[in-house]
Write a structure and sequence with these properties.
about 180 residues; alpha+beta; Aminopeptidase; four-stranded antiparallel beta sheet; three-stranded antiparallel beta sheet; 7 strands; globular
C-alpha cells in the first residue's frame, strides 16, 4: 500500500542518503550536506513554503519523495514554462524520486505517481491539471508518467536541474477528470 505524509526534519538523514544515490543524484543534482538539505527542504517541512514535500511509504516503509506545488506560487517557474506551453490557472506540478535503489524498476514510481494524482484531484478540487516537465534523457521518469496516465503535450527548452544536461525537456500533462467517479 502506498501512503505518504509530510516530510519532517527527522526524515532529513534518510533524504540525504537518497539524494546521494547515483540514480537520484544524476537527475536531482542536489547538495547532500545536512546544511543544504535543511536549507532547501526545511521551509516546506515547517510549513513556511507553499510547496509540499511528501515522504512516500510502501507498506509503512519509506521509499521515496514527491514534491507537489502550484505553479502560481512560483512565478518565475510558471513564466519559464508558460513561454513554452499552455499552463492553465490552477495547475500544479510534481517531482518525485524512489530513493532506495533496491526499489527501482519495480513499478513503485508509477504507483506513487498515480496515488498522488488521485489524491490531488480529491484533496484539491481547484486543481485543473498536473503538468510535469522532464529532461528528455530521463527516460525512466517520463515512462513512469506515461504509465501513470500522463500525456506528452510538448517539447520545451527549459533550464535543466543538472548543468550537464541540455535544455531539452518533454512536458507531460494530465487533466482533472470530467467524470466525478474517475476522481477517486
Amino acid at each position: 500500500m502506498i501512503t505518504w505524509r509530510r516530510l519532517g526534519e527527522p526524515d532529513f538523514p534518510q533524504l540525504r542518503q537518497w539524494l546521494a544515490q547515483p540514480h537520484v543524484a544524476r537527475w536531482w543534482n542536489h547538495e547532500t550536506s545536512p546544511e543544504a538539505v535543511k536549507r532547501d527542504f526545511g521551509p516546506a517541512a515547517r510549513g513556511q513554503e507553499p510547496s509540499e514535500d511528501l515522504l512516500v511509504l510502501l507498506d509503512g516503509e519509506p521509499i521515496g519523495l514527491v514534491q507537489r506545488c502550484r505553479f502560481a506560487d512560483y512565478p518565475d517557474y510558471l513564466a519559464e514554462l508558460a513561454a513554452e506551453v499552455d499552463v492553465p490557472d490552477g495547475a500544479v506540478t510534481i517531482d518525485y524520486l524512489i530513493g532506495d535503489p533496491c526499489r527501482v524498476g519495480q513499478g513503485h514510481g508509477v504507483r506513487m505517481i498515480r496515488a498522488v494524482v488521485g489524491a490531488t484531484w480529491t484533496e484539491q478540487p481547484d486543481v485543473t491539471a498536473i503538468i510535469v516537465p522532464v529532461q528528455v534523457a530521463n527516460r525512466a521518469s517520463w515512462r513512469a508518467l506515461e504509465k501513470a496516465g500522463f500525456h506528452r503535450v510538448a517539447e520545451a527548452s527549459l533550464e535543466p536541474d543538472n548543468p550537464i544536461d541540455d535544455r531539452a525537456h518533454y512536458v507531460y500533462r494530465i487533466d482533472r477528470p470530467t467524470c466525478p467517479a474517475a476522481v477517486q
